[in-house]
Amino acid sequence: MNKIKIFSPATVSNVACGFDILGFPIESLGDEMTISKSKNIGVRITKVEGYPVPIDSQKNVATVSAEKLIQDLKPNCGFDIEIKKNIIPGSGIGSSGSNAAGSVFGINKLLGDPLTTKQLIKYAMIGEGISSLSEHPDNVAPALLGGLIMVKSVEEENIISLPIPNDLFCFVINPKIEVKTSYSREILPSKIELSSMTKQVANFGALVHALHTSNYDLLRLSLVDNVIEKHRKKLIPSFDKVKNKCIELGALGCSISGSGPSIFAITKGKDDAIKIDIEVKKIYKETNIDFSTYVSKISSDGIKIIDSI
Amino acid sequence: MNKIKIFSPATVSNVACGFDILGFPIESLGDEMTISKSKNIGVRITKVEGYPVPIDSQKNVATVSAEKLIQDLKPNCGFDIEIKKNIIPGSGIGSSGSNAAGSVFGINKLLGDPLTTKQLIKYAMIGEGISSLSEHPDNVAPALLGGLIMVKSVEEENIISLPIPNDLFCFVINPKIEVKTSYSREILPSKIELSSMTKQVANFGALVHALHTSNYDLLRLSLVDNVIEKHRKKLIPSFDKVKNKCIELGALGCSISGSGPSIFAITKGKDDAIKIDIEVKKIYKETNIDFSTYVSKISSDGIKIIDSI
Fold this sequence. Notes:
Helices cover 36% and strands 29% of the residues of chain A. Chain A is an alpha+beta fold. At the A-B interface, strand 2, strand 8, helix 6 and helix 7 of A face strand 2, strand 8, helix 6 and helix 7 of B.
């Protein structure tokens, strides 16, 4: 294989109480990346279409991830990367994660899969790290693996595919204003109340239990974030209005995706997600901010190969 | 039924990353309580054998719990409570929780079970509250329900029986020095690092997943407390020595039970628990502190009825 074209999905991360540890892919949105072997050693961005990202290989998350992978795998060739960027940078739905994951996935495939997909996560995280103040794996892991992924740490045994009840869907709205991940981290307090921790731990434990037992009532009680959302929602126009509408229309939970400004809701069944889509669009039209929305099954698919030669 | 005699178990709480939310009963240790209907309205402690607890019904956790229950149920009789106290107060293994749970369990039985066992938890917690700075349900809930119980809050739908892999045992050592729950709460910081919260959340989520999947390797990785143990271990002689020995001998995890000074270890199989028992006894004999140890299956039994007439 000399050339591979992949679809690398956008991802919802910081899923409610799962701050920095839980994420899942959005089926219907992602970047296309074409990666080709080259006689020229090293990794380069040779083309960017769609939304702009850095061409400089020191600054592009795809090349930064890839460089680290290549340092370890020492292939006898280089790689050219083309990106068709459909995910807006700074939108809170894993724009950088998509490319950081896509490049290492593609290169690993071109080299005959020397590493497992789980092993690729730590490389993807290194790229992801340059776009925020800290390296966090809750976008790259679900992009690579698909499904609802909990990452306790980057070692393989700490990357956990949680069960997904049959009927889980998500709605996502991406207001087209940029919130820098680094800024969105800065506004968080460095310390929190011990009692807030206990609540977050309990909610996350209950969420994991609810997923294992397909307990939708418990999902509704546990898809809650008492720690992060209250700080970051100030950066998102009409957040409370959108959230209240989602809950009113039956969402199991609603919170900020990644570091915002995207907002996600999780629903039981597609119908609720579609109803939410219709009503939240009405709310956002009043803001005069451009936006896109997505309705997607919470699926077990991660990066998909579109073509290879 | 006019009189009931019950065994109300000691409980391990604050199970590693499950601070204030996770506990389980110790099969082989508990208080015996005999509760009788009386023509005299109200609740009284009529006898205490074994370790001392207050006779004053305003100060005894059993009567405080019971008073609240009686306020709501309005029975046309009163109750006399005898306690044979085998659990040392202030030992970190649910001494007060045992009695707070036992009294409401017994009275509810004598009244023909007007409430479910889950509904009794909030009453038991009220009694438990007078022995510490805050009401916390992770002793009374497992004492009442049996099993490995996670309490997100006291509402029924937030009380969760977690699955227990077949082969889980615990070892507990109770050094016979008193650590007041209230003091042990005071030495905790009121605020913690956000990154510490994320670790605790991830560990607890992984623990719940590991229990559902009988994944002993993941149990070992997740039965960890990075937040509380480091503060409270100072109150417990030879804590590090005991913990290191437990881990060396194969324990899946080891931490402080409740607010200490008791220490628990969780093992795969009884053999490891017995080995730990032998070696930890040697360590504690060197301290010249009196102590007891217990080896117990992590069982699904809570309070047991010994006799009733």
